[in-house]
UniProtKB/TrEMBL annotation, chains A, B:
Gene3D superfamilies: 3.30.465.10, 3.30.70.2740, Vanillyl-alcohol Oxidase, Chain A, domain 4. Keywords: FAD, Flavoprotein, Oxidoreductase, Transit peptide. Pfam families: FAD-oxidase_C (PF02913), FAD_binding_4 (PF01565). InterPro entries: FAD-bd_oxidored_4_C, FAD-bd_PCMH, FAD-bd_PCMH-like_sf, FAD-bd_PCMH_sub2, FAD-linked_Oxase-like_C, Oxid_FAD_bind_N, Vanillyl_alc_oxidase_C-sub2. One of its GO terms (molecular function) is D-lactate dehydrogenase (NAD+) activity. This is D-lactate dehydrogenase (cytochrome). The keyword Lipoprotein does not apply. The keyword Glycoprotein does not apply. One of its GO terms (biological process) is lactate catabolic process. The lineage of its organism: Bacteria, Pseudomonadati, Pseudomonadota, Alphaproteobacteria, Hyphomicrobiales. Residues 45-222 form the FAD-binding PCMH-type domain. Its EC number is 1.1.2.4. PROSITE patterns: FAD_PCMH (PS51387). Belongs to the FAD-binding oxidoreductase/transferase type 4 family.
Amino acid sequence: MAATAQVKAPNVDVTIAELKKLFGDRVSTAHAVREQHGKDISFHEAHLPDAVVFVESAEEAQRVVQICARHKTPIIAFGTGTSLEGHISAPNGGISLDLSRMNKVLQVNEADLDVVVQPGVTRKQLNEYIRATGLFFPIDPGADASIGGMTSTRASGTNAVRYGTMRENVLALQVITPDGRLMRLGRRSRKSSAGYDLVKLFVGSEGTLGIITEITLRLYGIPESMVSATCAFDSLEGAVNTVIQTIQSGIPVARIELMDTETVDTVNKYSKLSLPLKSTLMLEFHGTEASTKEQAEMVQALAEENGGGHFAWTSQAEERTKMWQARHDAAWAAKAAKPGWGMWATDVCVPISRLAECILETQKDIVASGLYAPIVGHVGDGNFHLTMMVNPDDPTYLKRAEGLNDRMIARALSLGGTCTGEHGVGLGKIKFLYDEHGEAMSLMRSIKKALDPDNIMNPGKIMGPIN
Amino acid sequence: MAATAQVKAPNVDVTIAELKKLFGDRVSTAHAVREQHGKDISFHEAHLPDAVVFVESAEEAQRVVQICARHKTPIIAFGTGTSLEGHISAPNGGISLDLSRMNKVLQVNEADLDVVVQPGVTRKQLNEYIRATGLFFPIDPGADASIGGMTSTRASGTNAVRYGTMRENVLALQVITPDGRLMRLGRRSRKSSAGYDLVKLFVGSEGTLGIITEITLRLYGIPESMVSATCAFDSLEGAVNTVIQTIQSGIPVARIELMDTETVDTVNKYSKLSLPLKSTLMLEFHGTEASTKEQAEMVQALAEENGGGHFAWTSQAEERTKMWQARHDAAWAAKAAKPGWGMWATDVCVPISRLAECILETQKDIVASGLYAPIVGHVGDGNFHLTMMVNPDDPTYLKRAEGLNDRMIARALSLGGTCTGEHGVGLGKIKFLYDEHGEAMSLMRSIKKALDPDNIMNPGKIMGPIN
């Protein structure tokens, strides 16, 4: 675990020499820089790129792609390095294209509730930038990820149950194709039936079809009223059933998040909260004063029927932020509970009617495996996560984690679900993709080969070798 | 206009002979049947297929595709024939694959708010079928179209402002690829980041990538309270500005539809209503009793500021249905106003901030052109329609309509919009696609060639000749 591998791409020395001519010391072959770019925050083995180039504009990125295309050198886009399935590693070597300096908000169209950003803008930076407009961008993966990375992995988060994922919120893109052309996909209008949906094809394609250099996103008005609550339950089942009934009743809850007892314990310690040590829902309601009150009353009634205790309310911005930051830090809390251990974060998503079954079976399996693996989840979408902590000094841990992950995914697939709700495929989930998609994998391969015949864009990711 | 053209596909006699062996009298070469399958409800020239085959299962459809693939015979999927841009015509001849007998609802997953249907199920049939469950499917193009056709054209309708279009509401598909394989795309879980979004690629691909044989759709709970209203305005501008402000305020209106004075006049006559002869909004609010009341009050306040009169309310199901049926029949009303004339229905969609400008300029242009072309619109999305009526006895009409359409589309594109909000491309909008997408058209062509190298799936549609 956390080993470092390195494969040198053919001809890469020529590529690097040409890049250096253009970009000077913005091309780095330093080991530390390459290491930082070859390893995300997950347990996956690091694979170092041969060099890293820091670009500052779409035109510069285009020059990099053109040079790499000429020499068939792999290119791996890099934002903040916070992905979880080995997306940014370079198993075939090549150039890591660091887009983090392309971090400008280009256009805020307040009247249209949309914004145009460069890929290196992070979600928190964006919300900070637009705060005065009264608008916000709701998608919030755990990390303060870049919008480019979030687009590429089809990211999601706690607000998806109300506002959708990156799939629903990217209106248009500017991209560089593998042959080095810069082009626009999609328009700012809210809908269109003008041909193939190339925007949605690029969302979630993990850098395997091209480089994203501009993203147009939907924004939303900050609701008049936003109130959050926590509610502790006698059983995990009661908490999950409350979620299921809330969704089935069509209550437009903005956030409905689950933490099992283990997670509550670590979050209490890491974020200095004092939640009761029980399976807990964290909820948020958005709307007018009257409508949030009404929604909250409906969910409270459901919770009561399912063994939920009283709702601990918070409507002040500062407290709400603290509470949700604690939720976002759940994985770090788990990591802090096991210093020096590796973190393997994994997730699945199932149809809501099968959620209780999937979580309860998985919980039993965690106990049987003897692993420390707190459960958290964006349960309103049927999506939940395990943060499996792996002791590097005991080789059985990795094996046991692998078994637990394999079984959870088989369970989710058998219930009509997916092997990855929001983390993407990267290297980590390739082996499950055929079980999920079957024959359809051949269409993905055909599209990849058609758009990137030399396989230079993040080769090996999503579908493994394509020939 | 409404001429009938016919091109015989090479080798089609062999294809037809093989089909007849399998399907007997479910293969028709009768002129009347071919004519019905070669012409949609728009003004476009008819192009007759060489034969029509009526299939009753996915496996039968697969056999048809396999036979056509072997002989490189074009295949055009057919549902209800209610599309508007020449989607179902056969400019290269070939086989019309009639899927209307595949009209079963296969699975209603009440607890997951989803349903699995065959492509020939129509939207009204579906809603009738699921009525007892308390769920409904919101997407409602004017016609009682088939779900297969609606998926293929990325259809939309009056509820899209609240519930999204087919893009947001198709969860999974079963399709037959051009080489005759039957496969599944997507899963029932609400989100996934497991590779390329093939479902969204097929939604809106107009039968050019394969045949859709099963569709999994999202459903929604019928709201506790649904109230509709009409409101007449002193000016078209006032009505449009009310819409813009409603959307910008984030009021979750379920429907907000515009009719200009011309439309109100024809709708009054056709559907026996007595709306005041003014620019009019038709609205609907969904939610709890309290929240619909609150939403309605907010919109009323905005309308008042913009010269809107009083809201005429209706909450009884029967009256609401009558009112919305009248809205859906607006194109038929225009047709009835000019007996014997051809109907050319066209639409565009722009960012909401540019909607007033786009509609008002277009209205001026209608007056200047001397055409009868009532305006209706799903204005909450920035989407509006012209129903241009064309006198077949006066050749100048078609030319003038063409000019009006060309200018409206150029206007919409220059404002950041799209050349087709919800009608698709078919044959009618091909010529605008390069202006809209530029270089990105080459990606569409690459994908088409990769998945359908012999170009047998609805050839000539969306992108014209691909070589």
